[in-house]
């Protein structure tokens, strides 16, 4: 694939994930403000998300969208502001994507199952 | 200074804010997931960490993160509107409105946090 084709694809993925994240972040911000009103506790978080399929789906979509969006953004910054080669920034992007996916789903699934422990 | 004239522009600072907020949020993500993942080891483990965050300094840091998230959201919406609908006379207003909304969200968080 030519570098132009790669850049175009990444640009599209960046915008599609941004549109999804736009909705997710609005929900997230509202939820943060509601959740902190009585002080944040493990019981509150676990009570809300544990065993709840709707929240599992929401946070799964959230993690996938951010795992696409953030690494592409970091790659763009590295390409424009450092001397790293495109092949190197591509690796950074891929690693960051894997880290976010792994850690994100570990947390999402962990919280979903937390009530069962 | 002539060489820095481009910086004396609302859109330049909106670009800087979008980059900085995006980068800081990306760096914060693994920490956020790690803390939430503590719930796997039991509610007490997560509560242990949450009680550590119960200080004014951490509350201020959390407020800053909320502002960064809201600013990245409004900045991103402005950017996509610009890309898909073209530049408008009102786009400078959008920078001001977006920044204002982000600060208001931060203030609401600060007023509600306990």
Give a quick account of the main beta sheet of chain B: strands, pairing sense, barrel closure.
none
Low-confidence segments of chain B, given as residue ranges, are none
Shape, per Cα inertia axes of chain A: elongated
- Contiguous low-pLDDT stretches of chain A (5 residues minimum) are none
| Annotated CATH topology of chain A | 3 helical TM bundles of succinate and fumarate reductases
Could you give the distance between the termini of chain B? 46 Å
- Which structural class is indicated by helix and strand composition of chain A? mainly alpha
Count the beta strands of chain A: 0
List the helices and strands and how they pair.
The complex is a heterodimer of chains A (117) and B (114).
Chain A: H1 3-35, H2 42-49, H3 53-81, H4 86-114
Chain B: H1 10-37, H2 43-52, H3 56-85, H4 91-112
Helix pairs in contact in B: 1-3, 3-4
Question: How is this structure best described in words?
Answer:
The complex is a heterodimer of chains A (117) and B (114). Chain A has one domain (3-114): Up-down Bundle (3 helical TM bundles of succinate and fumarate reductases). In chain A, 85% of the residues lie in helices and 0% in strands. Chain A has four helices and no strands. Chain A has helices at residues 3-35, 42-49, 53-81, 86-114. In chain A, helix 3 (53-81) packs antiparallel against helix 4. With 114 residues, chain B is an all-alpha fold. Chain B has one domain (8-112): Fumarate reductase/succinate dehydrogenase, transmembrane subunit (3 helical TM bundles of succinate and fumarate reductases). Chain B is built from four helices and no strands. Chain B has helices spanning 10-37, 43-52, 56-85, 91-112. In chain B, helix 1 (10-37) crosses helix 3 and helix 3 (56-85) packs antiparallel against helix 4. Chain A binds chain B through residues 15, 18-19, 21-22, 25-26, 28-29, 32-33, 36-43, 45-46, 66, 70-71, 73-74, 77, 96, 99-100, 103-104, 106-107, 110-111, 113-114, 117, and chain B through 19, 22-23, 25-26, 29-30, 33-34, 36-37, 39-40, 42-47, 50, 53, 66, 69-70, 72-73, 76-77, 80, 83, 105, 108-109, 112-114.
């Amino acid at each position: 694939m030519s570098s132009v084709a790669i850049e175009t694809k990444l640009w599209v993925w960046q915008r599609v994930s941004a549109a999804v994240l736009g909705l997710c972040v609005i929900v997230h911000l509202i939820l943060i403000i509601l959740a902190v009103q009585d002080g944040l506790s493990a019981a509150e978080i676990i009570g809300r998300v544990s065993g709840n399929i709707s929240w599992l789906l929401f946070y799964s979509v959230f993690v996938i969208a951010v795992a696409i969006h953030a690494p592409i953004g970091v790659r763009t910054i590295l390409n424009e502001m450092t001397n790293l080669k495109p092949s190197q920034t591509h690796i950074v992007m891929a690693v960051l994507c894997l880290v976010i996916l792994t850690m994100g789903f570990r947390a999402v699934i962990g919280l979903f199952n937390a009530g069962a422990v | 200074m002539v060489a820095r004239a481009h910086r004396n522009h609302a859109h330049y600072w909106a670009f800087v804010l979008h980059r900085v907020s995006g980068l800081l949020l990306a760096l914060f993500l693994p920490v956020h997931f790690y803390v939430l993942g503590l719930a796997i080891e039991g509610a007490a483990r997560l509560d242990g960490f949450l009680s550590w965050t119960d200080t004014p300094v951490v509350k201020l840091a959390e407020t800053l993160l909320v502002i960064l998230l809201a600013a990245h959201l409004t900045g991103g919406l402005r950017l996509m509107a610009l890309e898909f609908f073209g530049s408008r006379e009102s786009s400078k207003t959008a920078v001001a409105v977006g920044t204002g909304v982000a600060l208001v969200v931060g203030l609401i968080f600060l007023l509600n946090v306990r």
